[in-house]
User: Which sequence fits this backbone?
């Protein structure tokens, strides 16, 4: 149960930041700070960003509309550079979020829903605070509750 609550934290933060006032705050604060820090420069991030994200306010869910280039990635092995965002307080694990942006706040979302990939590795890795390269099988998912729409499984990290 506690693990599920930890997984909900990024979603709750994304929902809170989705209001016009909060979105502007993020732009002036976290986003501008992130823009000056190292980023994952993989062209795949540009492709994933083409996914249109919406919010169903009545149901409290994110929605995603995947364009053809993103749909075409499903089932393929892809490589993506980014930063590990652990889902709990552990220093090792097999499940984390990969973000294009350098994390700047433990309580802030790692990016927009189309800038984050849920990753499951084949074996436990040490969670490092530096740019990493992840290779794994890419899949689309429709997890509107947590705002997660991309996943890599069987992944390796270097």
Assistant:
């Amino acid at each position: 149960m506690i693990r599920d609550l930890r997984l909900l934290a990024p979603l709750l933060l994304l929902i809170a930041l989705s209001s016009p006032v909060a979105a502007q705050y993020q732009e002036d604060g976290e986003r501008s700070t992130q823009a000056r820090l190292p980023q994952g420069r993989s062209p795949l991030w540009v492709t994933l960003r083409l996914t249109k994200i919406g919010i169903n306010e009545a149901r409290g869910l994110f929605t995603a509309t995947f364009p053809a280039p993103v749909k075409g990635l499903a089932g393929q092995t892809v490589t993506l550079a980014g930063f590990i965002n652990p889902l709990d307080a552990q220093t090792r694990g097999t499940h984390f979020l990969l973000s294009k942006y350098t994390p700047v706040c433990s309580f802030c979302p790692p990016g927009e829903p189309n800038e984050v990939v849920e990753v499951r590795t084949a074996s436990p890795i040490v969670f490092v605070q530096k740019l990493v390269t992840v290779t794994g099988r890419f899949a689309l998912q429709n997890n509107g509750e947590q705002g997660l729409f991309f996943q890599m499984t069987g992944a390796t990290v270097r």
